[in-house]
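Structure first, sequence second, as always.
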């Protein structure tokens, strides 16, 4: 699986942001989002392996609103293995990492959060339209999740974000939803919400380091 890793310019930076682009995207798409959320973090960004009519995705669909569950699991297994391998290769701690996903990337990230024991600190999922009922047994206690949605978004509705909120909360995650007036695009307001939401997470990570 193609990926991009950018080590922080700050020496011994502990925070890492893991990025998953939207349909038709690539591993560089969310770099501006990442630097707005935390410009001192390490960055690991993935490119989806699935091609849908010339557009890059993280898993196949049977229709616009129906996931290919077999593809979803196969691709998620692959990403999970890559995360474990790359965290060792690049020497970063998943417990101090936050996932950022947009659209299709937010959906694969949600599947990973709900079905695998990643141990990440949290996730910022933008414009997710999560439509899988598969849920693993692990819990998400002490995991922070921000869901952003556009009131005018017909591709991934605000209602779908609130449905995902309930699924994550049922597994113990601390979830908040922020709505904008926009559509499916990422708005400047979302970036600011992400930055503000991330600030106490960064403080928590750095406070933990001081205790070691």
């Amino acid at each position: 699986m193609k990926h991009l890793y950018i080590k922080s310019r700050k020496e011994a930076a502990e925070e890492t942001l893991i990025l998953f682009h939207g349909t038709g995207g690539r591993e560089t798409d969310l770099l501006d989002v990442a630097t707005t959320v935390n410009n001192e973090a390490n960055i690991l960004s993935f490119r989806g392996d699935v091609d849908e009519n010339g557009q890059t995705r993280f898993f196949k669909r049977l229709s616009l609103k129906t996931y290919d569950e077999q593809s979803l699991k196969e691709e998620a297994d692959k990403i999970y293995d890559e995360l474990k391998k790359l965290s060792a290769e690049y020497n970063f701690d998943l417990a101090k990492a936050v996932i950022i996903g947009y659209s299709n990337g937010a959906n694969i990230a949600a599947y990973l959060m709900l079905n695998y024991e990643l141990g990440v600190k949290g996730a910022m999922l933008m414009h997710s339209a999560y439509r899988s009922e598969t849920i693993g047994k692990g819990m998400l206690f002490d995991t922070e999740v921000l869901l952003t949605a556009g009131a005018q978004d017909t591709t991934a509705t605000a209602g779908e974000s609130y449905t995902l909120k309930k699924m994550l909360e049922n597994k113990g995650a601390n979830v908040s939803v922020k709505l904008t007036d926009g559509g499916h695009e990422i708005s400047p307001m979302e970036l600011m919400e992400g930055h503000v939401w991330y600030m106490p997470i960064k403080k928590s990570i750095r406070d933990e380091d001081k205790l070691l």
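Margin note: Residues 178 and 193 are 8 Å apart (CA to CA).
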